[in-house]
What we know:
This protein is mainly α and 57 residues long.
Amino acid sequence: MKKVVSLSRARKDRAKASKRARADANAHRFGRSKAEKARDENETAKARRDLDGHARE
């Protein structure tokens, strides 16, 4: 015999899981330390300088 499921509860649980996934993604994207942000910025700047250095005149 199958378990009876409340549709409103199922919708609420699905919405909560969706919000949690979005929050985890935002925490990963924006929850970085100052040192990590600076390292990424330095790596990007170095890559841009290297690319510009290889450009032909």
